[in-house]
Amino acid sequence: MKSDYKNGDAIARKVDALVNEALKTLVPYAPGKPMEELERELGISDSIKLASNESSMGPSPRAVAAIAEALRGLHRYPDGSAYRLVHKIAARLGVGANGIVLGNGSNEIIELVVRGFMLPGDEAVFAHPSFAIYPLVVQAAGGLGVPVPLKDLTHDLPAMARAVTPRTKIVFVCNPNNPTGTAVRKDAFEAFLRDLPDGVLVAVDEAYFEYMDDPQRVDSLQYHDSGKILLTLRTFSKCYGLAGLRIGYGVGHPRLIDYLHRVRQPFNVNWLAQVGALAALDDDAHLRVSVENNREQLARIYKALDAMGVRYTRSQANFLLLHLPGGDGKAVYDRLLRRGVIVRPMDSYDLPGTIRVTVGTPEENTRFLAELGEVIQ
Ligand SMILES: Cc1ncc(COP(=O)(O)O)c(C=O)c1O
């Protein structure tokens, strides 16, 4: 890497000698391609992005109005305890305020729990492929990630329980799983909790919880009294349409939450995020629109894919995994990209021949399906 420093190479060598050894092999998370970047590259202005599982229904208008109003207070630090939002979430969920910790996205809660509970050499179990952040955060902390292959594209919970060793601190359960959209069912989750050795923290990542409609869906909050150590992660980034604000939360036993507060920044959740989330919680109508659009559009996409003869995995979230004829996910991704449609190739997730597509607006889905039809001809 070229630098403007006079003694750049010498300093780079010193930095290498100093850095946490685990970072040397860490490959950073690759986010979905930004629309602006693609439009610059192609010289177009009508791209659509179905790559980052954002809500196609946008933010709650109430949240937008509340944020506009709050802009005048930007010279102040936010309330570091986020009193109003924490109490509102707690009341909604029927838990105490001391059982909630907010984060700069639920992503931050993943970092807090790893930083708070893992020492170098400790292990964390997660499914593979699953949310790519778990192994990164664990590696950055010097921990050892223990990936357990999915079975039929779903968490293999019995195998995950068996993967626990005396060094295991955390088991991540991503439900529904990103990138497959599959969810574990109640009976499997209950058996998992029974099988799991005591003294391990189970972080249940429910980023897409609000979209789930399976009557057998797991609400991990129901199991907080099961005797196991549970941490439920939820977010305003998906169904609430506030990904750009960066706000999510963790729910757990007050002792666990107390430790997570100790490792967070004093003002980890910014003022606009607090205000926006508070208003969004009052906008049930907007949440319903997001859920309903997702349900209707998923059904419609399934039908169109059936007609095209494209296989897919049924999803409990706002995205779905397509298994492409010919088995070349990256090639289809590239061809769609050239037509201004951004999806996510899953080859790097060890799912060759697949792409992950976020459910868009009806118009976006029409365009995606039309372009896909042409691309796979
Ligand atoms: C499974 C899962 N967990 C957590 C996150 C992070 O969400 P947030 O925006 O709340 O940090 C994502 C985002 O894509 C996700 O897919």
Q: What's the arrangement of secondary structure elements?
A:
Elements: H1 8-18, H2 35-42, E1 48-49, H3 61-70, H4 83-93, E2 100-103, H5 106-117, E3 123-128, H6 133-140, E4 144-149, H7 157-162, E5 168-174, H8 186-195, E6 201-205, E7 229-235, E8 248-252, H9 254-263, H10 271-281, H11 284-308, E9 311-313, E10 319-323, H12 329-338, E11 341-342, E12 344-345, E13 354-358, H13 362-375
Parallel strand pairs: 1-11, 3-4, 3-5, 5-6, 6-7
Antiparallel strand pairs: 2-8, 7-8, 9-10, 10-13, 12-13
Helix pairs in contact: 3-10, 4-10, 5-6, 5-9, 11-13
Quick summary:
The chain is of the alpha/beta class and 377 residues long.
The structural domain count equals 2
Q: What is the helix tally?
A: 13
Overall pLDDT level: 95
Query: What's the gyration radius in Å?
Result: 21 Å
End-to-end CA span: 42 Å
Q: Give the tally of β-strands.
A: 13
Strands ordered across the widest β-sheet: 2-8-7-6-5-3-4
State the share of residues found in helices, binned by percent: 25-40%
Structural class: alpha/beta
CATH class of the largest domain: Alpha Beta
The proportion of strand residues reads: 15-25%
Q: What are the segments in which pLDDT stays under 50 over at least 5 consecutive residues?
A: none
The topology string of helices and strands comes to HHEHHEHEHEHEHEEEHHHEEHEEEH
Oligomer: single chain
What do these coordinates show?
The chain contains 13 helices and 13 strands. Strands 2-8-7-6-5-3-4 form a seven-stranded mixed sheet, sandwiched between helices. The longest helix is centred in the C-terminal third of the chain and has 25 residues, at 284-308. The mean pLDDT is 95. It has 377 residues and is of the alpha/beta class. It has two domains: 30-57 and 285-375, Aspartate Aminotransferase, domain 1; 61-281, Aspartate Aminotransferase, domain 2 (3-Layer(aba) Sandwich). β3, α6 and β4 form a beta-alpha-beta unit. α3 packs antiparallel against α10, α5 (106-117) packs across α9 (254-263) and α11 packs parallel to α13. It is globular and about 55 Å long. The chain has helices at 8-18, 35-42, 61-70, 83-93, 106-117, 133-140, 157-162, 186-195, 254-263, 271-281, 284-308, 329-338, 362-375; strands spanning 48-49, 100-103, 123-128, 144-149, 168-174, 201-205, 229-235, 248-252, 311-313, 319-323, 341-342, 344-345, 354-358. Bound molecules: pyridoxal-5'-phosphate.
